[in-house]
Write a structure and sequence with these properties.
By secondary structure, the chain is of the alpha/beta class. Helices cover 37% and strands 22% of the residues. The chain folds into 2 domains: 170 residues, Nucleotidyltransferase, domain 5 (2-Layer Sandwich); 170 residues, Nucleotidyltransferase, domain 5, CATH 3.30.420. The strands form 2 sheets. Strands 1, 2, 3, 4, 5, 6 and 12 form a 7-stranded mixed sheet that branches. Helix 8 runs parallel beside helix 10 and helix 10 runs parallel beside helix 11.
């Protein structure tokens, strides 16, 4: 007899710090039976600024009882409660990723904030959480976690296939014949561009890629950025949102105009994805792009010029705005069933590894 099919709600708040994605899914933990409602609940500007400050402080031994951390955790969790309620769908379990404020797997540290017990009580449902901790404790990278979901969705697509997620950080899933998987963080996604645009214009991001399209790439700055040793490291590998901050600060980027800086950062994102080709077992026939980066025409054009067949995931019927939240719905069911979340080819862990924990609403 097969595993039971459960109704799950997945919640994801990514490194872009823009809000909570929520999605409903029916799954047995291995196959996607049916997708349903999905939505995004933006963070209030004050919460987004508070989370950004915590990112900057987390690496400096931020105390777990820090007042700002506690206030942000409570506010963040209430946003997740509101997202679950806004879905207005029945479910058996919630998958709650929380908000990453620190990711240093080389030091066996990863930190996602959020109060799973509060979420469980408020929603009256069991909550699966702490998806990354076991992997990092076992020497894995703890990221990315989406490959097992990408594999479930792409079961009937031609391979080799690459699924590229461009959130704050970029990551790729390479799918070969059979069940072969390789995944890793490629480099910067939208985070450096978003931070640049916010500092120069006050806007949250480069809408429609207009600033980048109006600028010229500074090749000298781009070369200094692409000289980062991360790109030569073998996969699997993963990043923190701020891992390139020092190089960005010393690259000469700050001396550029707003448009030229945006164009150079788009080229940095695309160049880092192109550099990932050196670590793939075979060149993908196609790249399917999810995450906020697929909405930026300048990024998509830069990727296509380097990679060939590049398309948003909607071209194969997937919902790129819901994909990561759907992933954590499936992962919640896998936690409940004791199925592996991570694999040698996705995080570098020694063997397929289960993880996460379940918090009941009692």
């Amino acid at each position: 007899m097969g595993r039971p099919i459960l109704r799950a709600i997945g919640l994801m708040s990514g490194t872009s710090l823009d809000g909570v994605d929520a999605a409903w899914l029916e799954t047995d933990g291995e196959q996607v039976v049916r997708t349903g409602r999905a939505l995004t609940l933006p963070y209030a500007p004050e919460l987004r600024l508070r989370l950004r400050r915590l990112l900057d402080r987390a690496g400096a031994n931020l105390p777990v009882q820090d007042p700002e951390l506690l206030e942000a955790t409570a506010a963040l969790t209430q946003c997740h409660v509101a997202a679950v309620r806004a879905l207005e769908t029945r479910a058996d379990i919630i998958g709650f990723h929380g908000q990453t404020i620190l990711h240093q797997p080389q030091r066996r540290r990863t930190w996602q904030i959020g109060d799973a017990a509060l979420l469980a009580r408020a929603c009256g449902l069991p909550v699966a959480c702490d998806f990354r901790l076991a992997d990092v404790a076992a020497g894995g990278e703890g990221a990315p976690l989406a490959p097992v979901y990408h594999r479930a969705l792409a079961h009937d697509l031609a391979r080799p296939l690459a699924v590229l997620n461009l959130g704050g950080v970029g990551n790729v899933t390479w799918l070969g014949e059979g069940d072969s998987l390789l995944a890793f963080d490629t480099g910067p996604g939208n985070a450096p561009l978003d931070d640049w645009v916010a500092s120069r214009t006050g806007a949250a991001f480069d809408r429609d890629g207009r600033l980048a399209a109006a600028g010229r790439i500074d090749e000298a700055v781009l070369a200094r950025l692409m000289a980062d040793p991360y790109f030569a490291r073998p996969a699997p590998k993963s990043l923190d949102r701020l891992d390139f901050a020092a190089r960005l600060a010393t690259s000469g980027l700050a001396q550029l105009g707003t448009e030229d800086g945006a164009a150079t950062l788009v080229a940095f994102t695309a160049g880092s994805v192109s550099a990932s080709l050196a670590h793939l077992p075979a060149r993908p026939r196609r790249w399917l792009v999810t995450g906020g980066g697929r909405h930026n025409p300048a990024i998509m054009a830069a990727l296509a010029s380097r990679l060939g067949d590049v398309a948003p995931v909607e071209e194969v019927g997937w919902d790129g705005d819901a994909l990561e939240a759907q992933c954590f719905a499936l992962l919640a069911v896998r936690v409940l069933a004791g199925l592996p979340l991570t694999f040698p080819g996705t995080t570098g862990v020694a063997a397929p590894l289960a993880g996460g924990r379940i918090v009941d609403p009692a």
